[in-house]
């Protein structure tokens, strides 16, 4: 083949698999770059300069198989992404910097061990991202958005490194959901659509029989059946998937399904998977999970999987010549790809909800488990599982992911914004609560639009509340920035210091900024009006009949600002029967003091 036939896609694919392949020859003691997404982007840029097009074409199959540990992951990647038997072209690792070789060793494989998570990096938006599913999504996107036939022959044998599969080149109609693809998704797509999206999951979508007694739900909070996921009547024939979407399987569906084969999980109420804390934010090296018994499907893994799926979908829809991968990632983890602020990491959950529907994801998880079962008949988690059981696992996994991850806001934990320790002993809340109190911070007055400024504002407010006000901690339960994120204050479980006399009865949620004359960002408003309380109700933290009040309705203050309060009064959950400062005015008119109230000590702040 002549050099004229080499395409930029081949170069990009080669760069990815060379990055995987560098894991083969790690050097002990090699100096490494900090575990930042910027370091990964720097590594890709260096590879793009070092790898000539004539070498990049033949690296995809061999580098991945050699770089990853043996197991079902190898077989799935081989079947879906490496259908042709390709010769490997080796790259001399010494052509690359020691920092790049060390970084590759640190990030190319994702794993959880002894309470620490490996293969993750800190992104500029403050989120932690697993690199492995991100790179897998990029590779799948570069190869094209392929719908691949499953090997339905029950005698199909496990794959070997030299096998080829004609099915991987089959042309099959796109089986994705009727919801818009990412290219058509608007920046203002919001995760409230998730609830409506999931309501479409019915037995007819799955043709699933009632679950046999041996099937275990994926989470204690997720029932085997629910009003939204109904098992059909006995005797209904199971119709298993015959195709899978290679992009969704290699990024998300396979690992999501495997996680729900392990029985009840240890996931938190704030989202699917466990988050964690970096040893430092400027030059992070170690990421420790908040739950030492976390499933491998952590928050960082889900972030990387969604980013890989979204960027892979974008690549599959973008004609040649495409952006170099280093440029693509730099834009995605920055202001937005190709000048589109809606295509950025801050909005991954909203965009993920637009990428695929719950019925389609259920089929993809089910299909991924079928594929694993075919490729590795002795897989310890899949051996002996019936189609009915696999279908139920897929249903549970999709429901949990849709409701607890896509349907909840992204919340940065306290360690992410650099919180100082709590002073004293916190008082636990008696959950669920019945109120959500809306505030604005007033100072800082300007809205924060990126992680660095929002985190700095959080530290500033905490210092003021602790050092000037004499409180134990930052007063608010949660703070909402204009960057698409929620910042944990005292959180779901501890009494705050936000609404004097009512701290133990409701959560205090503040918008960063002064909203006397203007309104917060649309995305921030949607988080407070719908997403955050909806997530809390599903998790049992907020009562289903909860009400929203402005700070001024309970305390003599102008908070949350005239413009924001006027909008709050139009929200369905607004407690219109509570008038601002009514009790105080009535007391003045009568000339009598209001009756004394016995308040918990925590409510006096």
Automatic annotation (TrEMBL):
Annotated keywords: Immunity, Signal
Protein name in the entry: N-acetylmuramoyl-L-alanine amidase isoform X2
Region span, Disordered: 208-240, 579-605
One Pfam family in the UniProt entry: Amidase_2
Family named by the database record: Belongs to the N-acetylmuramoyl-L-alanine amidase 2 family.
UniProt xrefs under InterPro entries: Amidase/PGRP_sf, Amidase_domain, PGRP, PGRP_domain_met/bac
Swiss-Prot/TrEMBL GO biological process terms: immune system process; peptidoglycan catabolic process
Positions of the Peptidoglycan recognition protein family domain: 409-555
GO molecular function terms listed in the Swiss-Prot or TrEMBL record: N-acetylmuramoyl-L-alanine amidase activity; zinc ion binding
Lineage: Eukaryota, Metazoa, Chordata, Craniata, Vertebrata
UniProt biased composition (Basic residues): 581-592
SMART domains tied to this protein: Ami_2, PGRP
Domain N-acetylmuramoyl-L-alanine amidase: 422-561
């Amino acid at each position: 083949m002549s050099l004229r036939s080499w395409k930029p896609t081949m170069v990009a694919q080669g760069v990815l698999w060379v990055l995987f392949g560098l894991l083969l020859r790690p050097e002990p003691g090699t100096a490494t770059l900090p575990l930042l997404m910027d370091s990964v982007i720097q590594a890709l840029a260096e590879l793009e300069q070092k790898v000539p097009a004539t070498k990049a074409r033949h690296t995809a199959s061999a580098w991945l198989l050699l770089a990853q540990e043996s197991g079902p992951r190898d077989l799935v990647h081989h079947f879906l992404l490496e259908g042709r038997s390709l010769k490997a072209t080796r790259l001399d690792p010494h052509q690359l910097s020691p920092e790049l070789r060390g970084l590759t060793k640190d990030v190319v494989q994702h794993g959880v061990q002894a309470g620490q998570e490996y293969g993750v990096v800190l992104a500029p938006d403050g989120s932690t991202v697993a690199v492995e599913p991100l790179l897998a999504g990029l590779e799948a996107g570069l190869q094209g958005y392929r719908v691949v036939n499953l090997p339905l022959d029950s005698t199909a044998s496990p794959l070997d490194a030299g096998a080829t599969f004609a099915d991987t080149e089959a042309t099959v109609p796109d089986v994705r959901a009727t919801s818009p693809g990412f290219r058509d998704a608007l920046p203002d797509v919001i995760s409230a659509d998730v609830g409506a999206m999931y309501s479409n999951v019915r037995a007819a979508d799955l043709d699933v029989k009632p679950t046999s007694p041996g099937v275990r739900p994926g989470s204690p909070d997720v029932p085997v059946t629910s009003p939204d996921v109904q098992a059909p009547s006995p005797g209904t024939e199971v119709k298993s998937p015959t195709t899978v979407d290679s992009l969704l399987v290699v990024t998300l569906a396979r690992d999501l399904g495997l996680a729900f084969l392990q029985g009840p999980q240890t996931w938190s109420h704030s989202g699917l998977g466990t988050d964690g804390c970096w040893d430092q934010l400027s030059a992070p090296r170690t990421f420790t999970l908040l739950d030492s018994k976390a499933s491998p499907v952590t928050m960082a893994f889900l972030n990387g999987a969604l980013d890989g799926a979204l960027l892979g979908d974008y690549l599959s829809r973008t004609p040649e010549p495409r952006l170099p991968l280093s440029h693509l990632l730099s834009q995605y983890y920055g202001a937005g790809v190709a000048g589109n602020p809606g295509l950025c990491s801050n909005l991954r959950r909203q965009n993920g909800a637009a990428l695929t529907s719950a019925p389609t994801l259920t089929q993809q998880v089910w299909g991924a488990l079928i594929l694993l079962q075919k490729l590795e008949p002795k897989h310890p988690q899949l051996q002996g599982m019936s189609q009915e059981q696999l279908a139920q696992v897929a249903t549970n996994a999709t429901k949990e992911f849709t409701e607890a991850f896509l349907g909840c806001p992204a919340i940065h934990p306290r360690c992410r914004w650099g919180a100082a320790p709590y002073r004293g002993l916190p008082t636990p809340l008696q959950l669920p609560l019945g109120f959500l109190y809306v505030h604005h911070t007033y100072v800082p007055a300007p809205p924060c639009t990126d992680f660095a400024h929002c985190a700095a504002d959080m530290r500033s407010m905490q210092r003021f509340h602790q050092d000037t006000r004499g409180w134990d901690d930052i007063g608010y339960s949660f703070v909402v920035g204009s960057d698409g994120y929620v910042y944990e204050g005292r959180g779901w479980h501890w009494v705050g210091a936000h609404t004097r006399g009512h701290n133990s009865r409701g959560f205090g949620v503040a918008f960063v900024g002064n909203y006397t004359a203007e309104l917060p960002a649309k995305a921030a408003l949607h988080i407070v009006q719908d997403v955050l309380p909806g997530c809390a109700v599903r998790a049992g933290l907020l009562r289903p009949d909860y009400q929203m009040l402005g700070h001024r309705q309970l305390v003599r203050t102008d908070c949350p600002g005239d413009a924001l309060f006027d909008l709050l009064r139009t929200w369905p959950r607004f407690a219109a029967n509570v008038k601002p400062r009514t009790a105080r005015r009535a007391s003045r008119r009568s000339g009598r003091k209001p009756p004394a109230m016995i308040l918990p000590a925590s409510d006096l702040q």
